[in-house]
């Protein structure tokens, strides 16, 4: 086996940061194995990135860190050739727009830095080690503080003008649903309907306090079904993994959405039977480790 520095027989350890809208996870390990894990709330850029540096610096000084991988919420500039590579763009997260995420960490730690979105990184982890194993065209959806969608084509994350921002598309609404949405940019885009803050606003209480059999979940399941059907039609994904804090803690939501998909697809795709959709649209095999594991993959490739 060859490490990322090219030395036969050696697998280098790297550090990874999953920078989420609510919490940050810092890990040490290598792709496929997390050796150490520290979690703390995502607050201001200075405090959050400072805590990451304080955690990683001793590992770096001990020779345990050969590179760093960052799996970040966004939107964030991921193109290395861009002048603002690693800078946060116009994010709904207060105080983070314009934060120099990659630059601050690279200057403090002095090691190669890889960067991708948290959802692209999670998609890589599920493709390499989890629910999307051997599915080169795969999608990872996180339903949590926001709604993000990572896309792999031929096993590689999709970049372009920026990176996929599927969470901000608008789709058909459930009949009779008058919720205005909670996205500060678009109102009733998918993030404005399905994110944790959106569900709290929709329900008038924390989603965790709403019973799985409460009819209030019906519109949310319809919104998720519309998103899944759109991704099946546009990307022809072999696997769509639905994770994130809300989805992982509300396991009834994905089956409810999946049950609505055949009617939405209208019999158009003969390969998308109800049985097939159970194989295509699945929960993450890595659970809450998908993002941190993806950060290690991104770091190992830096």
What this model shows, in words?
Pfam families: ROK. The chain contains 10 helices and 10 strands. By secondary structure, the protein is of the alpha/beta class. Strand 1 and strand 2 (23-30) form a beta hairpin. Helix 1 packs parallel to helix 2 (101-109) and helix 3 (118-129) crosses helix 10. Mean pLDDT is 93; it is low at 1-10.
Principal-axes shape call: globular
Sequence stretches where pLDDT stays below 50 over 5 or more residues: 1-10
Number of strands: 10
Supply the number of structural domains: 2
Whole-number radius of gyration? 19 Å
Taken in chain order, the helices and strands follow as EEEHEHEHEEEHHHEHHHEH
Distance between the termini: 18 Å
Number of helices: 10
Briefly note the structural class of the backbone.
alpha/beta
Percentage of residues in helical conformation: 25-40%
CATH topology of the largest domain: Nucleotidyltransferase, domain 5
Mean pLDDT: 93
Strand content: 15-25%
- The main sheet orders its strands as 3-2-1-4-5
Major beta sheet, specifics? 5 strands, mixed
CATH architecture of the largest domain: 2-Layer Sandwich
CATH superfamily of the largest domain: ATPase, nucleotide binding domain
CATH C-level class of the largest domain is Alpha Beta
Pfam families: ROK (PF00480)
Organism: Novosphingobium clariflavum
Protein name: fructokinase
Catalytic activity: D-fructose + ATP = D-fructose 6-phosphate + ADP + H(+)
């Amino acid at each position: 086996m060859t490490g990322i520095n090219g030395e036969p027989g050696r697998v280098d350890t790297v550090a990874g940061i999953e920078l989420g809208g609510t919490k940050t996870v810092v890990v040490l390990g290598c792709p496929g194995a997390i050796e150490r894990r520290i979690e703390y709330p995502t607050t201001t850029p200075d405090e959050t990135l400072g805590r990451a540096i304080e955690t990683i610096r001793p590992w770096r000084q001990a020779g345990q860190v050969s590179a760093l991988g960052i799996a970040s919420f966004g939107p964030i500039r991921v193109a290395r050739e861009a002048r603002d590579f690693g800078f946060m763009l116009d994010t709904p997260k207060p105080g983070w727009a314009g934060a120099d995420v990659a630059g601050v960490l690279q200057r403090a730690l002095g090691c190669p830095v890889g960067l991708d979105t948290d959802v692209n990184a999670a998609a890589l982890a599920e493709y390499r080690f989890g629910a999307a194993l051997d599915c080169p065209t795969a999608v990872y959806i996180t339903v949590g503080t926001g709604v993000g969608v990572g896309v792999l084509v031929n096993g590689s994350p999709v970049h372009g003008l920026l990176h996929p921002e599927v969470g901000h598309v608008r789709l058909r609404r459930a009949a009779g649903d008058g919720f205005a949405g909670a996205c500060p940019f678009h109102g009733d885009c998918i993030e404005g309907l399905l994110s944790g803050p959106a569900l709290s606003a929709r329900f008038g209480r924390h989603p965790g306090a709403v019973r799985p059999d409460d009819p209030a979940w019906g519109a949310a399941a319809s919104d998720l079904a519309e998103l899944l059907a759109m991704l099946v039609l546009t990307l022809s994904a072999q696997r769509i993994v639905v994770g994130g804090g809300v989805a992982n803690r509300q396991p009834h939501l994905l089956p409810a959405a999946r049950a609505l998909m055949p009617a939405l697809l209208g019999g158009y795709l003969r390969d998308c039977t109800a049985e097939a959709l159970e194989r295509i649209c699945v929960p993450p095999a890595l659970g809450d480790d998908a993002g941190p594991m993806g950060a290690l993959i991104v770091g190992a490739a830096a």
